[in-house]
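Long-time lurker, first post. I've been practising inverse folding by hand and with some scripts of my own, and I keep getting stuck on stretches where the structure tokens seem ambiguous. Below is the full token string for one chain I'm working on. Before anyone asks, I'm not after the true native sequence, just a reasonable design that respects the backbone. If someone could post their per-position residues I'd love to compare against what I wrote down in my notebook.
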């Protein structure tokens, strides 16, 4: 039912983004071809929108079926209710309204990605597991995007502050602001925060100079280390609110590995956040160890190959898990290694555990 709902939500989002009064065309950028859409908005004004890479079979398939996609709001809403009744988590009403508004504004079409506990919530349906309620609690929405994507798609969602204020007029921009005066986060009167993030692969000095993100409505984003690993090749998911919201989230195996690394980088006084990192990682180990160990192995190996500091963090993070969970992770990696016969240079199966 979840898989069917996801497909229906993707269909519905595609139809809403690209009305039948327009058409698609391809454009090449840096040797790669991308789909764009040219049409007219409800006011009769011509508009051009970025769609996605031509080599993405899901996107190109939808272009081929343009105008034939049909989606029933009532059926999708019924599926959401049934899934929630079956034990999958639903967004709270306010968060659901925020994410739905951002989705309709084009956030996920422009390849932005939810991270943090909102992304974790999506794994219940993707992995077919019930998630502990304590691991889902959050009072913020974290959104990440690669700078290269934001600068090269030649498209943008409306101003972020306007989208948020359409749901709650008390949303305001909060500091620190970037050099050009644009916000990197937003907060309402109830202290609900929406934060924008971008991978930092340069020096630590770069972290204090948030770059502008043209695709995100003129906002900027806070650079964070390790984020490039997390949001590389995200997956499509649906969050359960109203008739479902199609979103992009990190692959669960990358989320797991990232949480182990992040837990080792937090300050000792951030014990609540450390516990949540490890609790979420442990839940994903249990969910993936038996039948998704190859994906887990691939993510772990990729992180392992990034160098000594990454290896030290992986070992330390594994050691911070409860012993039974740590051993389950070790055995899953060893089993995948043995089944594939893959052993990258310098990495022994025992070491990877």
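-- Answer (accepted) --
I ran through it position by position. Result:
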């Amino acid at each position: 039912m979840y898989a069917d709902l996801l497909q229906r939500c993707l269909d519905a989002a595609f139809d809403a983004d690209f009305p039948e009064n327009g058409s698609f065309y391809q454009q090449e950028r840096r040797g790669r071809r991308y789909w764009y859409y040219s049409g007219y908005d409800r006011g009769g004004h011509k508009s051009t929108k970025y769609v996605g890479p031509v080599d993405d079979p899901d996107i190109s398939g939808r272009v081929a079926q343009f105008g034939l996609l049909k989606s029933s709001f009532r059926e999708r809403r019924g599926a959401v209710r049934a899934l929630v009744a079956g034990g999958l988590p639903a967004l709270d009403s306010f968060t659901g309204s925020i994410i739905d508004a951002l989705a309709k504004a084009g956030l996920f079409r422009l390849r932005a990605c939810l991270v943090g506990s909102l992304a974790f919530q999506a794994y219940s349906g993707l992995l077919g597991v019930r998630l502990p309620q304590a691991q889902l609690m959050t009072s913020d929405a974290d959104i990440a995007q690669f700078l290269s994507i934001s600068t090269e798609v030649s498209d943008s969602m409306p101003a972020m502050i306007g989208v948020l204020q359409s749901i709650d007029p008390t949303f305001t921009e909060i500091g620190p602001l970037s050099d050009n005066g644009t916000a990197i986060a937003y907060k309402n009167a109830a202290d609900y925060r929406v934060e924008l993030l971008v991978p930092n692969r340069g020096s630590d000095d770069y972290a204090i100079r948030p770059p502008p993100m043209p695709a995100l409505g003129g906002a900027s984003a806070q650079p964070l280390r390790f984020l490039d690993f997390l949001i590389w090749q995200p997956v499509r998911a649906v969050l359960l609110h109203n008739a479902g919201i199609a979103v992009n989230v990190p692959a669960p195996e990358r989320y797991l590995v990232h949480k182990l690394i992040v837990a080792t980088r937090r300050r000792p006084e951030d014990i609540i956040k450390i516990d949540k990192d490890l609790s979420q990682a442990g839940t994903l180990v249990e969910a993936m160890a038996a039948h998704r160990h190859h994906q887990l192995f691939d993510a772990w190996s990729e992180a392992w190959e990034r160098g000594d500091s990454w290896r030290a963090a992986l070992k330390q993070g594994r050691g911070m898990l409860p012993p039974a969970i740590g051993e389950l992770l070790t055995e899953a990696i060893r089993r995948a290694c043995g089944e594939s016969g893959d052993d990258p240079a310098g990495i022994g199966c025992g070491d990877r555990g």
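A couple of notes from the structure itself: Residues 196 and 221 are 5 Å apart (CA to CA). Residues 344-348 have pLDDT under 50 and may be disordered. Happy to go over any region you disagree with.
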